């Protein structure tokens, strides 16, 4: 089968699995989320009709008389219409609206931080791995400390040092609250200022992994015959480094993007909490504390969708970069 | 510990790292599975052993971590080495108990996740065909679904009172096995091709025996390295969960400490002695395990090891050459 087709169908399966997990989790676990949710809705002054009850029961399981497969079908139909229910903690906002307002914050923050970390880590890894055995290379094991640091703790330390003690950056939030969000210079400057610490946390915590992977691949690549040939031809070391060694060594790093993105997204969920960042991670945790199950599931679906989408993109790019992957099928 | 004969300058002359066989007496089968001692490995082992001992013995030596005193938020002093919390609890005592809790969950999840990944990775790759495809698809799907958000959602649905240590451990294991299953899968595929596996299959051994006796021993270093990764990931994941208040309700871990520190406004009150030690403990333990893993990596990927030995040999040869040059100049001087 065609490489691109194979990838597309794999991500379709992954998406279906995520949707099904989302359907199964509340039904397999103890507790009765529907009743808790409806009680909360009533507190907010909404009259609970049998229809609302049925909508939530579809989303979260519960005492529905329908057989499971009908519930499942209706659940998928509701999702296809983009109906994720009403958020209790942001009542009367729709879950999808709550998510759509917070999604851009996270996508921009995590996106920029991940790209920075990947570029920085791969470049440093290539340089360090190019001359194995130098003093620089002997420092590589110390980057494991960075990789083993909990994201949120690093965030706490950075917030303490740079925001509280030195006062260089604001401690919490996503932008100066006196400004109204919009595409003007003042607001963007403020958003960058507020986003700097969370981004720095993600970059610091994830750069070590990229560096290490690239370094090890460089070391392996350098013993390949084509490097020897290139040296024998008398090519300049710079050219060998750039066009021969790095390009081949970087491939596993690109292919491993899936795993690292999962880690980064997971880490940033809690990092957002430390900085009270208005992104999707903060919404997820807020939903958990408020028993806002509908929002919780919606956020999980959106995060999964975003991660799957990013991975699909990288996989398709990988097929372009490395012709061998296309030929293997 | 070197297993090299007195410097042989020939390998140093080669520009590339070749897979030169160890020059010394042949290492026995089991010895070759053990990593070589390097300074980094020593640091790693000391860190891991020290922190494990602290978690095991620390709780016996410190006072009650829950005891409340009227000395809130005092910085480290002779009486309280790591200061006190907002309610006057001894941070060092809490740290000792929390370290024990975190190690416990790390070990538990490490074992569970490794078992899962071994099943899906090794068994699938060994059986091949349809089962392998199905297991691979399953593994890859779990790999791309982001773990922590899934864990958060699952923990969010479980009522607080039924959220015990085992629940959290199982949830973390179920969401964390996929990456190492893929690694084990790839390794098993290469081991399965070897002749002795075919030989034992032809001689009519049952599949389970072939896997356990013929394949598993060759995968031990890989499994060990994946286990170490799983422990790190589990401790980090549990810390994250506890930090947001979704951890096991009956356990005290390093993440729980950070949760209380955050809720007690340790950050804005400047009580660094409250929130720095737990995170540092996790980071140092994780670093220790990663350093151990570095050495295991050298067993799995001999290229990395040859590189180090090559370096050592090159240095030795250089020294020898200089020595010879010095001697010869001395001789000509006479």
TrEMBL record, chain A:
Its main location: membrane. It is found in: Cell membrane; Membrane. One of its GO terms (cellular component) is plasma membrane. InterPro entries: MetI-like, MetI-like_sf. Belongs to the binding-protein-dependent transport system permease family. It is a multi-pass membrane protein. Pfam families: BPD_transp_1. The keyword Transmembrane helix applies. SUPFAM superfamilies: MetI-like. Residues 103-314 form the ABC transmembrane type-1 domain. One of its GO terms (biological process) is transmembrane transport. The keyword Transmembrane applies. This is ABC transporter permease. Keywords: Membrane, Transmembrane, Transmembrane helix, Transport. It comes from the Bacteria. The chain crosses the membrane at residues 105-130, 151-171, 191-212, 249-270, 299-321.
UniProtKB/TrEMBL annotation, chain B:
Belongs to the binding-protein-dependent transport system permease family. PANTHER family: D,D-DIPEPTIDE TRANSPORT SYSTEM PERMEASE PROTEIN DDPC-RELATED, OLIGOPEPTIDE TRANSPORT SYSTEM PERMEASE PROTEIN APPC. This is ABC transporter permease. It is found in: Cell membrane. It is a multi-pass membrane protein. GO terms for cellular component: plasma membrane. Keywords: Cell membrane, Membrane, Transmembrane, Transmembrane helix, Transport. The keyword Membrane applies. One of its GO terms (molecular function) is dipeptide transmembrane transporter activity. The chain crosses the membrane at residues 40-62, 105-126, 138-158, 165-184, 281-300. Residues 99-293 form the ABC transmembrane type-1 domain.
